[in-house]
Every structure is written in structure tokens, then in C-alpha cells.
Specification:
Elements (H helix, E strand, L loop, with lengths): L6 H11 L9 H15 L3 H11 L8 H16 L22 H11 L5 H7 L11 H9 L5 E5 L11 E3 H10 L8 E2 L9 E2 L6 E2 L11 E4 L6 H10 L4 E6 L5 E6 L6 H17 L15 E2 L4 E2 L4 E2 L1 E10 L4
Antiparallel strand pairs: 1-2, 1-3, 3-9, 4-5, 6-8, 7-8, 7-12, 10-11
């Protein structure tokens, strides 16, 4: 594959590599500058987010929301004509699809599931969830993965390291079962990894947990960023999607792991998941568009969030992928 040498992309890489430290070093305005270059280059928003998340450093903790706000502002300014440049897209452009009445369709789905509770979702779960919450992670891994599948389980910010936060599924299960019940790491990449380093989306350096490191293209992570929690429960009860797991984030969201089939490579993922499933079906309903890449993190059930005083809990588990309402 030829190396992209568009001058804007080179500037994006340079500015990303030179991102100043957070905490008095000028990181906040620099985020917008890097994001603007990324948007002008046609780099997907989720790739820009990942690049910035991995590059941020310094004494001040930079929350995900601050990074996402910079990307959103850059996108708005670019759309309004603040930056006119020849795009250099990194992936094929989505096909033009007829616009559907997304808000209307969402209302109909939510109304169909109106009044749904967590108990309703658990009652529809093909795997009966009758164990303590702290054991959720063990049962999810046991049900959805082969022992040799390689999984990342850790935090958003941690550096991926083989045999530490990147291990075989069988090793994770042994580790979780050997020690007394207690806190689990908060995040997981649902799709199995190769275990080998791949290039970062920015082209600067390598990573063990990026889109280029995915081996098994099995699950799409679906969540709503603004839909009320009770409406999310109603949506998942009524939506006809092949769900393998529903995870309460311990905050405001329910994360759905949706089974995708027949995907052998990143090109298939772009066409089937990013362009069709998200672009044509889910994004018009208001689903968070930042979730659509293949190495997306999801909340791992069985972790207690001290910041919220709540558990990340498993609400539904169906290894074969079934519509909850079916």
C-alpha cells in the first residue's frame, strides 16, 4: 500500500507528535489545532480521538469529553468553511443512502419497548444471569470467546503490554478466577486482537490495540450518548438487532455488543459496519457515531466504578447473537 504524503497529513502528524503537555503547557488549544488538521485531511473522527487520547500527556488529566469537544468544534468549523483544503480520505467514502426519519423510527422503537426494566432484559437473556455481579467478566469471556482469542482489558489511557493487559481469553479467565472477587479493569476491546503491533491511525509509531491490530471482526459496540437511560432499556428490548451482550456502564449508558457476520477484513468492516449498519441504520437513530470502529472500547461488566459508586453490570448474554425481543 502506498504511503500517503499529503502535506496536510504531514502537518497533522507533526502537530500530533509535538502536542504540548497538559497542565499549563497549552494542550487545550493545541487539541483543536490537531483536530482541525485531521478533519481537513478526512481522517475519521474516531481515529483523531484515538490519536489524541494516546498522545496527551502532562500533569493535568484531560477527560475524553474535552478531546471530543475539540473534534466536534473542528468539524463544525470545517463544515462552515473555516478550513478549505483538498481532502485525503483514509477510507472509502460511504455510499449515498436515502435519509430515513431517524427520530421518528427511534420514537417508534422506544414506544414499543416502553416500560422495559433491567429485569425484563435479564428475563429475556438466553444465558441465565444468576451469579454475583463481580463474576460478570468471567462469564462473558467464557461465553463469547475461545481460550486462544487475544483480548485487551484495561483502561483508556494505559499502554498496551503483552501478557499484562493483552492476554489470551483463557488466561484472563484463570486470572479472574484465581484471585478473590474484587475490582476488574474497566474496559475491554470486544473484538479479538492479533497480538502483534500495527501502525497507528496517524502513521506515527505502532500500537498493539488499534484498528490495524484486530484479528476477529465479530462485534460492533452500540451506545447512545444522550438518550435517557429508561429509553435505552426500551430500545434494547424492542430493537431487532443480533445482541450478544448488554452492559450497564454504571453511569448513563447501556452498551450493546452486536454480532456482525461475514467480515473478514477491515474493508469488509468499513462497508458493512461503518457505512451500512452505522451510516444507514444506527446513526440516524442517534447512536454515538464514535463507536463504529473495530477496536472500540466498551465497559467490561463486573467492574465497580468508584467515580459513580456503581457496578458495570451484565444485563443480557446471548452467545449466538439474538434480538432481545425475539
Amino acid at each position: 500500500m502506498a504511503t500517503i504524503t499529503h502535506p496536510l497529513l504531514e502537518r497533522y502528524r507533526e502537530k500530533l507528535a509535538a502536542l504540548p503537555a497538559a497542565g499549563g503547557g497549552g494542550c487545550h488549544p493545541a487539541l483543536l489545532g490537531v483536530a482541525s488538521l485531521g478533519v481537513m485531511c478526512g481522517i475519521p473522527a474516531h481515529d483523531i480521538f484515538r490519536d489524541l487520547r494516546e498522545q496527551v500527556h502532562g500533569d493535568r488529566v484531560v477527560p475524553d469529553r474535552e478531546i471530543q469537544d475539540a473534534i466536534d468544534k473542528a468539524a463544525r468549523e470545517h463544515a462552515a468553511g473555516a478550513g478549505r483544503a483538498s481532502p485525503c480520505p483514509r477510507r472509502p467514502s460511504p455510499p449515498v443512502a436515502p435519509r430515513i426519519d431517524g427520530p421518528g423510527a427511534l420514537r417508534r422503537i422506544v414506544e414499543e419497548g416502553r416500560g422495559a426494566t433491567e429485569a425484563d432484559l435479564r428475563g429475556r437473556s438466553p444465558v441465565q444471569i444468576d451469579w454475583p455481579t463481580e463474576q460478570d467478566a468471567v462469564h462473558v469471556i467464557d461465553a463469547l470467546y475461545q481460550p486462544e482469542d487475544v483480548l485487551f482489558i484495561g483502561t483508556r489511557e494505559c499502554r498496551p503490554v503483552l501478557d499484562q493487559n493483552i492476554r489470551r481469553a483463557g488466561d484472563w479467565v484463570v486470572s479472574f478466577r484465581e484471585r478473590p472477587p474484587g475490582p476488574r479493569q474497566p474496559h475491554i476491546i470486544p473484538n479479538p486482537l492479533t497480538g502483534n503491533a500495527g501502525p497507528k491511525a496517524s502513521g506515527i509509531g505502532e500500537t498493539l490495540r488499534g484498528d490495524s491490530c484486530i484479528k476477529g471482526f465479530r462485534f460492533a459496540v452500540v451506545e447512545f450518548d444522550t438518550l435517557p437511560h429508561e429509553d435505552q432499556l426500551a430500545f434494547w428490548l424492542a430493537a431487532r438487532l443480533p445482541v450478544v451482550a448488554l452492559v450497564d456502564s454504571g453511569g448513563k449508558s447501556v452498551h450493546g455488543w452486536v454480532k456482525v457476520r461475514g467480515i473478514e477484513c477491515a474493508t469488509d468492516w468499513t462497508r458493512v459496519v461503518e457505512q451500512h449498519l452505522f451510516g444507514n441504520l444506527l446513526e440516524p437513530l442517534g447512536v454515538d457515531p464514535a463507536c463504529k470502529n473495530e477496536s472500540r472500547l466498551s465497559r467490561l461488566p463486573g467492574h465497580f466504578r468508584t467515580d459513580k459508586g456503581a457496578w458495570q453490570r451484565l444485563l443480557y448474554l446471548a452467545p449466538e447473537g439474538k434480538a432481545v425481543a425475539a
